[in-house]
Amino acid sequence: MITVTVNKKEHHIGDGATVGDLLKLLEINPAATAVALNDIVIPKSEYATKVLADGDKILIIKAFYGG
Fold it and tell me: Which of 7, 29, 60, 61 has its Cβ near the most Cβ atoms within 10 Å?
């Protein structure tokens, strides 16, 4: 089990979890999301392969529509 900080809130997730696993756990649609891992934006194409490490800091920005 590792601890990561997502938008300033700690979350626990299994060892070897990816960015995609985290989004699934948080019930966030990856298609409408931008993710920065330790201040580096991760391309959507890497969500399924980018493995998280203990202590990582993740910023998730969800797109929304309105006007």
Answer: 60
